[in-house]
Design a protein that fits this description.
Mean pLDDT: 76
Radius of gyration: 58 Å
Number of strands: 13
CATH topology of the largest domain: Rieske Iron-sulfur Protein
Helix content: 10-25%
Number of helices: 3
Low-confidence stretches: 6-15, 18-40, 83-90
Strand content: 25-35%
Distance between the termini: 133 Å
């Protein structure tokens, strides 16, 4: 019997409204039975809604902080490296005097090849240019002269042109010795060029080099003049 049927039965049977009627019988000794009712309160059978289980929150705060710090450290390192690469280091001018030995040696200064002649503390600088089709020269140490292997120009140690196609001697460059950070540097101004003197007459060549050198030169390259 449903709760509604019980309630109807209770009301019809004379029970209080809103209660269930339950017939029962109490026997009396030597008499007929008497009918009565037992009143039972209807319980609240409303089903309470289920509580929603709150979502489990993961603790991501600490890992997120660690990842952020690692990213910041990486970015900072890259920035420092970029600054180190982009900031040019100032280079000392010229050539260290200690790197210029006595005698004639070839050096690369400001993008140009330069011959430096050092005698004690006296320095002379020449451009490596034979003034003929862009040829350079070599220095013949045993002979004490410059010569162009390509076309045979001959120059004295002081740059004077003695023979060959060249119309003038080797061009000179200003050269000084300066103290830079307690280091003596040979500073050469490659932007200021002094043109070499005109080639000397053939009969005057012996005024600049020995006759033995001239004889070896006149013998031709096959004689191993500048070996």
């Amino acid at each position: 019997m449903t709760p509604g049927e019980w309630a109807a039965f209770g009301e019809v049977a004379g029970g209080p409204a809103g209660s269930w009627g339950c017939p029962w019988f109490t026997p009396a000794s030597g008499s007929s039975t008497t009918r009565g009712f037992a009143t039972v309160s209807i319980p609240d059978m409303t089903i309470a809604p289920e509580r929603e289980t709150p979502p489990v929150r993961r603790r991501v705060g600490r890992p997120l902080i660690l990842v952020s710090l690692a990213c910041l450290a990486l970015v900072a390192g890259m920035a420092v490296r970029a600054l180190m690469v982009s900031v040019p280091v100032e280079k000392a001018p010229g050539v260290a005097l200690a790197d210029v030995p006595q005698g004639v040696t070839l050096h690369h200064v400001n993008g140009k090849d330069v011959w430096i002649d050092r005698v004690e503390d006296q320095l002379t600088a020449f451009l490596d240019d034979a003034h003929h089709l862009g040829d350079g020269v070599v220095y013949c140490t045993d002979r004490g002269v410059f010569m162009s292997p390509a076309h045979g120009e001959l120059f004295a140690r002081n740059g004077v042109a003695l023979d060959g196609p060249a119309a003038r001697g080797l061009d000179r460059l200003p050269v000084t010795v300066e103290e830079v950070n307690e280091d003596r540097r040979v500073v050469i101004d490659t932007s200021s060029v002094s043109a070499g003197p005109p080639k000397v007459a053939r009969e005057d060549r012996h005024l600049y080099v020995s006759r033995e050198v001239l004889e070896g030169y006149d013998a031709g390259p096959e004689a191993g003049f500048c070996s």
